[in-house]
Amino acid sequence: MSQGCLRTVAYSLMLVGALIGLLGLVFVLAPGRAAKGLMMLLVAGGLIGFALSRLRAMARLTPEYLAEQVSALAAASNGEVTLASACGHLRLQPEAVAPVLSDLVSRGVARVEYRDGTEYYVFPGLKETKVVKRCPYCGNEYPVNTPGRKCPSCGGNLEVTPD
User: Fold this and answer.
1) Where does residue 64 rank: exposed (0-12), middle (13-18), buried (19+ CB within 10 A)?
2) How far is it, in rounded angstroms, from Cα 97 to Cα 104?
3) C-beta pairs of 99-104 under 8 Å, 24+ apart in sequence
4) Most buried by CB count within 10 Å: which residue of 32, 102, 106, 155?
5) Which residue has the higher pLDDT, 146 or 63?
6) DSSP states along 3-64
7) Residue 156 DSSP SS3
8) What is the pLDDT of residues 22-32, one digit of tens each?
């Protein structure tokens, strides 16, 4: 069944649940029919709850939501994910996740790198960069938290550059 058809079924179930709920309220207020009314309210609550859970599940399968989740995973993984890690994180099959990763690559958000026979999706904007102090004269590098602006080796001015 298509997403649109499933969404229509879920909304229809919500409508039926609301109608049964209204009828249940009428029965609760009628003398001698409170038990039937409570049962109808219970059934209505179950229908509406089931329909809402299906709508929530469908919302988690939209490409926009999946792309957001993959980006969050990449941010937590130093800007890199694999298809297997994304599938495990999202608890979905590769057939559902691969198109999302391909879309992120086609939009330029990520790029593909191959290492050790594994395909990595690298998100350059989420990758951590190391910054060091570098001397332009002798080429020595020092951690940024090292005090001083002069190179201890040659006395040149240190420049903060990405590693």
Assistant:
1) exposed
2) 11
3) 99/63, 100/63, 100/66, 100/67, 100/70, 101/70, 103/63, 103/67, 104/67, 104/70, 104/71
4) 102
5) 63
6) HHHHHHHHHHHHHHHHHHHHHHHHHHHSTT-HHHHHHHHHHHHHHHHHHHHHHHHHHTTSHH
7) coil
8) 999 999 998 88
Sign of the dihedral defined by the CA atoms of residues 121, 124, 130, 134, in that order: positive
Q: How many CB atoms lie within 10 A of CB 99?
A: 12
DSSP designation for 136:
T
By residue count, the chain amounts to 163
Q: Enter the CATH code of domain 63-126.
A: 1.10.10.10
Given a cut of 80, whether residue 146 has pLDDT beyond it is no
Give me 99's structure tokens: 């198109």
In this structure, which amino acid lies at residue 133?
Answer: K
CA dist., res. 32 & res. 30, Å (int): 6
- Listed by start position, the domains of the chain span 3-59, 63-126, 129-163
Task: Name the DSSP letter for residue 114.
Answer: E
Which pLDDT belongs to residue 163? 66
SS3 of residue 150 by DSSP: strand
Handedness of CA 137, 138, 142, 145 (dihedral sign): negative
